Amino acid sequence: MLSRHLCQALRATQAKSVVYRSALPALQMRNTSTSSASKGQTISISNLNMEPNQRPKPDLSFEDSETAFKSKSSLELLRGYLVFQLCSLNFLIDNQKFLLSFSRRVLGKHLFTQLMRMTFYGHFVAGEDQNDIRQNVENMMKYGVKAILDYSAEEDLATDNSFKGINEADQLDSSKKYFHPSEFNSDKNKKIFMNCIDAVSDVTHQTGIAAVKITSLVRPQLLLKFSTLIKQMNELDNNYSLLSWDNVMQMSDEQFDKLLNNTDGLQYVKDRQSFSSDELGELRNMFSRIDELIKHAVEKNVRVFVDAEQTYFQDAIHRITIEIMRKFNRNRCVVLNTYQNYLKSAYNTLKHDIDLANRENCHFGAKLVRGAYMEQERERAKEMGYEDPINESYDETTKMYEKSLMHCLEEVKKNPLGRISVMVASHNEQTVKFAVEKMMEYGIEPSDRVICFGQLLGMCDYISFYLGGLGFSVYKYVPYGPVEEVLPYLSRRATENRSIFEKLQKEKRLIMTELKRRMLPF
User: Fold this and answer.
1) Model confidence at 49, in pLDDT bands (50, 70, 90)?
2) SS3 category, 257
């Protein structure tokens, strides 16, 4: 059913595209004209070369369709409109896993891959590898928008990543001892992240950011166990001296065993975690992978976002991120943490981390997001019988987000310029308006490059490219990877962004406004 609807839509799109292609020469000549349907001022690419005080003031109605889609061809706009139409159908979102599986069986791998490239994958994913993504990234940079590169294969507790696509003969490091078959895949992922850092350095000329997922660097089941131990350690007075990065990296096997299995103060903790010698070896290898990655980023002068993931992993992910920030953020911001504001604990965690960075005189970087695992979190909390960690409502999450952002802005003003860096990663137009208005209120200039904005590739172009054209620091979160490996990412985004897809009327309207502007001779 899905494939039939998609094919019909694509045929209609291809038929329409003949009309648009015939008009393309005229459209290209009219790219510098101002849209009469646009309520806001049209921003020329020449604004990027102006002095900050000469640039136009932002029109926060975000109605400038010409600037929003200047980087897109008419065919890309048609594809975007089709994809957004499909994403607004509840039937497709509710049954996506079945429909994708069914379409794959009916069409076969080759046709299914082509269908994805022509629709969802083509719109939301930049390509399979560094060569594929280069053109997309360079095109965005022409219009003032930079890239966060993310190899978007995802792992969870149910994932069996043992020898996934790897033969024993393909062991990536013959000098390393492996303690579980999944480590072959973890090393493969480390190499992918290293290549991602190289791609940021090369393709974006060091202006972009690389995204890293800790669950890709260790067996998720073991990370869950380690996360439980970290949560127990957090109750100790000396917990921040226990996992100092240099100490962990220099420990002998006996010292590492004592740290994890015989920590002073945890002897009588209920459900205390214990680790076998093989599990200790796996964790040591995980620390080594992370250490290699961050040192490589420092060498390449590339910043790294550590993505937040499900809360049952997050105690470990958060602690690891804080420790590498304490180690590597001494002279500049290399590592940035992610704060999920749908969590009830988000503001307190953020405030605690900034206070720690201030005490230790190191740079602090934060990406503020709403959160992307809400349904999984609530299902697991109900299943396991613990308190739902998610805010009660969307409005409560918005309040949490604004509270976190305000604290960051206050810290930006209190500290030397560049000590605190924040990304407002949101598709909510009101949240972006709030951030821009507060920047103006606090006297923080776009050219200061301490507050930036981020949206997913293929979404909210009318915000990203408008602000980028005005000289704000703007990023697109650019997923890449093979079609089959990226499908879980696309599926999760479709589920978690359901509320966004339901509010796409403005983006669809602006797409049609721009297509009409390009078609009409006057």
Assistant:
1) low
2) helix
Token digits for 471? 């000289």
- Find the radius of gyration of the CA atoms of the chain: 24
Burial (CB < 10 A; 0-12, 13-18, 19+), residue 509, is middle
Structure tokens at 498: 């359901």
The residue ranges of DSSP E strands in 291-447, in sequence order, are: 303-306, 335-340, 364-369, 420-425
- How many other C-beta atoms are found inside a 10 Å radius of the C-beta of residue 81? 19
By 3-state DSSP, what share of the chain in percent is helix, strand and coil, each rounded to 5?
60, 10, 30
Please tell me the distance from the alpha carbon of residue 139 to that of residue 125, in angstroms, as a whole number. Answer: 15
Indicate the pTM of the whole model: 0.83
pLDDT digits (tens, 9 = 90+) for 351-372: 999 999 999 999 999 999 998 7
Q: What are phi and psi of 337, to 5 degrees?
A: -95, 160
φ, ψ of residue 296 in degrees (nearest 5): -65, -40
pLDDT in tens, 498-522: 666 666 889 999 999 999 999 886 5
Q: Using CA atoms, how far apart are residues 158 and 379, in angstroms rounded to an integer?
A: 14
Q: By CB neighbour count within 10 A (0-12 exposed, 13-18 middle, 19+ buried), where does 267 fall? A: exposed
Helix count (H) and strand count (E) of the chain? 22, 8
Query: β-strands 209-212, 364-369: how paired?
Result: unpaired
Q: Amino acid identity, residue 321? A: T
- CA–CA dist 174, 168 (Å, integer): 11
In DSSP terms, 145 is beta-bridged to 474
Specify the amino acid at residue 149. Answer: L
